[in-house]
Write a structure and sequence with these properties.
The structure holds two protein chains of two kinds. By secondary structure, chain A is an alpha+beta fold. Chain A folds into two domains: 230 residues, P-loop containing nucleotide triphosphate hydrolases (Rossmann fold, 3-Layer(aba) Sandwich); 113 residues, Nucleic acid-binding proteins (OB fold (Dihydrolipoamide Acetyltransferase, E2P)). Chain A contains eight helices and 20 strands. Chain A has a six-stranded mixed sheet with strand order 6-7-8-3-9-10, with helices on both faces. In chain A, strand 1 and strand 2 form a beta hairpin. Chain A is elongated, with a radius of gyration of 25 Å. Chain A starts with 7 loop residues before the first strand and ends in a 6-residue tail after the last strand. By secondary structure, chain B is mainly alpha-helical. Chain B has a domain of 156 residues: MetI-like (MetI-like fold, Orthogonal Bundle), CATH 1.10.3720. Chain B is 74% helix and 0% strand. The longest helix of chain B has 32 residues. The chains are: A alpha+beta, B mainly alpha. Chains A and B meet through strand 6 and helix 2 of A and helix 7 and helix 8 of B.
C-alpha cells in the first residue's frame, strides 16, 4: 500500500447519469477491519458509490483501490468484494446450503473444502438446521443471515451492505443490527454499510460518512457527528435540533454573541460580525427551569407534550414563531400545556453554522 | 350464489363448451378419417383400416420433407432462443433510445401477412446475394420464430430480479456465467415454453417457406399440400394425425416441466 493510503481508498470518484451529476469527485477511505456507514437520503449517491466499489457500475473518473491495488478496472467477479443486497437476492432455485456454496463452486474451490466451509458459515449464522430448506419459505431475518453467510463464505476482502435491514420490522431490525455487528467484528472483515437510517448508522459504525448531493458532508465517529455536526445538513439529517436564525455580533475571548429575534445568545465560536448564522441546540441539551449561570436562556410557552415511553418531547414557542424542541427523561412536574417556562442551555452546547438564508 | 351469478356461470360454460367443440371437431374428424378404409373422406367411415398409415412408409418425399422440417425447426429454434434471449435481456434491462421500436420490430413478423413477409425476405436475400436455399430457409424461420421467443422471454425477464445476476457476479461468476447459473435455471419454464412455441411455428409455416423451397428442399407443410393436389386421399389425414400426436407429446412435456397453468399465464 502507498504511504497514507487506506485499505479501501477512493479518490475523486465522479459519476453522472444522462448529464445528471450523482457523484461529484468523492474521496473516501476505510481502514482495515473498520465498519463504516454511508448515510444519506435517497438520491445522495451512496448506492452509486457502493455499486462503483462492487464493480456493478463504472465511475466516469477517479480511482478505487483495495488493499493497495487498483480495482476500478477489474470486473466484479475479480474484485474480492462481497455484497449483501437490499432484497438479499437469494437464489430461489437453490437450497440454503447451495446458496452459501454458490460462490465457492463458482470460484472452483476444491470440492473437499466446500462442505466444511458451508457448514462453518451456516453455524456462524445459526442456520445449520435449515441447510436443506429452500430459501423461499424463510423469514426476513433468516434470509438476511443466509445472504451474509453466502457473501462471507468466499472470504472477500471487503463486505458491502446495501440497506440490509430495510425489509425487516423495527423490533427485529434492532436485534439483527447488534447481532450482525458482533458477527462481522468476530470475522474481522472490513465493512461498508449503505443506509438512510441514521439510528442504524450510529448504532453499527466505527465511523459514519454523511452524504448529500453526491458529496460527503462529514466523515467522523458517530458521537462526533451527533455532538459536533460540521454542516447544517449533517445537523438536520442526524438527530433532532432546535434552529434559530440570527446575526453574528461582537466576539471576545472566543465567545461570540448572536443577535436573534428571541434574544441574545452566546456560543464558543468566532465569526465575522454581521454575518448571518444558524444557531442550533440538541433537544436533550436544553434544561427546563434550571438555575444555570453562564448559560443561554429564554422564556417560552409549552405548546405540546409528546410522550414517547422512555422519553418525552416538549414543544415550546418563544416570541412570534420560534419553536424549540426539548427532550426530557420524564414529564416535568408542575408544567402543563400553555405554561411558560425558562429554557436554558450551556454556551458549549450552542452549535453555530454559517447561514445562507434557507432552512433545510 | 345468486341467481344472476348462477346464470352467468351457465352462460360462460355453454360458450366455453361450444368453442371447444368448434375447435376440436376438425381434429377429431381428421383422426377418424385417417383410420377409415374409404379412399374418399366419408364420415362415418364404412370400415376401419391402417392402410393410410402403411402407405406413409413408402410415400415419396415424405421422410425427406420431415427431415428438412425437423432440422430447420430445431436450428431456427436454437438460433432464436440464443439471439432472442440476448436481445430480450438487453430490452428488459437496458435504458436506451429506440428500445420500444426494437421490441415492436422483433415481434412484427407476427403482425405481417405471411405472403408479404415472404416476398420481402426473398427480395432481401436476393439483394444480399444469398442463393443457398437451405440457409435462406433457416434464416427465414429464425425471423418467423423470433416473435414467439422475444414476447415470452421479454415478459418473463421484466419480472426477473436482476440483482440475482449481480449477486452471482459478486460471488465470482463472470457475466455470462452468472446468466447461465442464475438466470437460465430461474427462467427455464419461459425458455422451454417459448422454444416449443417457436418450434411448432416453424413446423407449421407454409406461407413463408414456400418462397425458400425448391424441388429438392421442401418442408413438411409444402410436401403435404403437394400430396393433396396430386392425390387427395386420407394419407394426408394420417400425416396430420401424427402431427397432432407430436403436439400432444410436446404439450405433455410442457405440462411436466412447467405446468399448464403457468403455461397459460405466459
Amino acid at each position: 500500500m502507498r504511504e497514507g493510503e487506506a485499505f479501501l481508498d477512493i479518490r475523486g470518484a465522479e459519476k453522472s447519469f444522462a448529464g445528471n451529476r450523482v457523484l461529484g469527485g468523492v474521496d473516501f477511505g476505510v481502514n482495515r477491519g473498520e465498519f463504516v456507514s454511508l448515510l444519506g437520503p435517497s438520491g445522495c449517491g451512496k448506492t452509486t458509490l457502493l455499486r462503483i466499489v462492487a464493480g456493478l457500475l463504472d465511475a466516469d473518473r477517479g480511482s478505487v483501490r483495495l488493499a493497495g491495488s487498483e480495482i476500478g478496472n477489474l470486473p466484479t467477479h475479480k474484485r474480492g468484494v462481497g455484497v449483501v443486497f437490499q432484497n438479499y437476492a437469494l437464489f430461489p432455485h437453490l437450497s440454503v446450503a447451495d446458496n452459501v456454496a454458490f460462490g465457492l463452486r463458482a470460484q472452483r474451490r476444491p470440492q473437499a473444502d466446500i462442505a466444511p466451509t458451508v457448514a462453518k458459515f451456516l453455524d456462524l449464522v445459526h442456520l445449520t438446521e435449515m441447510a436443506a430448506r429452500p430459501v423461499r419459505g424463510l423469514s426476513g431475518g433468516q434470509q438476511q443471515r443466509v445472504a451474509v453467510a453466502r457473501a462471507l463464505a468466499v472470504a472477500p476482502k471487503l463486505l458491502l451492505l446495501d440497506e440490509p435491514f430495510s425489509a425487516l420490522d423495527r423490533k427485529l431490525r434492532e436485534t439483527m443490527q447488534i447481532e450482525l455487528k458482533r458477527l462481522l467484528r468476530d470475522v474481522g472483515i472490513t465493512t461498508v454499510l449503505v443506509t438512510h437510517d441514521q439510528e442504524e448508522a450510529l448504532v453499527m459504525s466505527d465511523r459514519v460518512a454523511v452524504m448529500s448531493r453526491g458529496a460527503i458532508e462529514q466523515f467522523d465517529r458517530p458521537d462526533a457527528i451527533y455532538l459536533r455536526p460540521k454542516t447544517p445538513f449533517a445537523l438536520g439529517f442526524v438527530g433532532h435540533s432546535t434552529r434559530i436564525v440570527g446575526k453574528a455580533g461582537a466576539s471576545s475571548d472566543g465567545t461570540l454573541a448572536i443577535e436573534t429575534p428571541v434574544g441574545r445568545f452566546f456560543a464558543a465560536a468566532s465569526f465575522m460580525g454581521g454575518a448571518p448564522v444558524l444557531l442550533a441546540i440538541r433537544p436533550e441539551r436544553i434544561r427546563i427551569n434550571a438555575a444555570d449561570a453562564d448559560a443561554n436562556s429564554l422564556d417560552a410557552k409549552l405548546t405540546e407534550l409528546v410522550f414517547q415511553g422512555s422519553k418525552v418531547h416538549l414543544h415550546f414557542t418563544a416570541g412570534d414563531a420560534q419553536t424549540l424542541l426539548v427532550e426530557a427523561a420524564q414529564i416535568p412536574p408542575n408544567l402543563a400545556v400553555g405554561d411558560t417556562a425558562r429554557l436554558s442551555w450551556s454556551y458549549s452546547d450552542t452549535l453555530i453554522f454559517p447561514h445562507d438564508g434557507t432552512l433545510q | 350464489m345468486t341467481l344472476a351469478e348462477r346464470s352467468a356461470t351457465a352462460v360462460v360454460w355453454t360458450i366455453a363448451g361450444a368453442v371447444t367443440v368448434f375447435l376440436l371437431t376438425p381434429l377429431v374428424v381428421t383422426v377418424i378419417v385417417s383410420f377409415g378404409s374409404s379412399a374418399i373422406f366419408t364420415l362415418p367411415p364404412p370400415g376401419w383400416s391402417m392402410r393410410w398409415y402403411e402407405r406413409l412408409a413408402n410415400l415419396r418425399g415424405l421422410s425427406s420433407a420431415l427431415a428438412v422440417s425437423f432440422q430447420v425447426g430445431l436450428l431456427a429454434t436454437a438460433a432464436s432462443l440464443l439471439l432472442g434471449g440476448m436481445a430480450s435481456i438487453a430490452l428488459a434491462r437496458g435504458r436506451f433510445a429506440g428500445r420500444e421500436t426494437i421490441l415492436a420490430f422483433l415481434t412484427s413478423p407476427l403482425m405481417l401477412p405471411g405472403l408479404v413477409l415472404g416476398i420481402a425476405l426473398l427480395q432481401g436475400m436476393r439483394f444480399a446475394g444469398l442463393r443457398d436455399v437451405w440457409t435462406s430457409l433457416v434464416i427465414a424461420h429464425v425471423i418467423i420464430t423470433m416473435p414467439y421467443v422475444v414476447r415470452t422471454l421479454y415478459s418473463a425477464l421484466t419480472l426477473f430480479d436482476f440483482s440475482l445476476v449481480d449477486a452471482a457476479r459478486t460471488l465470482g461468476c463472470s457475466y455470462p456465467a452468472a446468466i447461465g447459473r442464475v438466470l437460465l435455471p430461474n427462467l427455464a419454464p419461459a425458455f422451454v415454453t417459448s422454444g416449443i412455441f417457436a418450434f411448432l411455428a416453424s413446423m407449421d409455416n407454409y406461407a413463408i417457406s414456400i418462397f425458400f423451397t425448391n424441388a429438392w428442399t421442401k418442408t413438411l407443410p409444402i410436401q403435404m399440400l403437394n400430396y393433396v393436389e396430386e392425390q387427395p386421399d386420407p394419407t394426408i389425414a394420417a400425416i396430420s394425425s401424427l402431427l397432432i400426436g407430436l403436439v400432444l407429446v410436446l404439450l405433455l412435456i410442457c405440462e411436466r416441466v412447467v405446468g399448464l397453468r403457468r403455461l397459460a399465464e405466459i
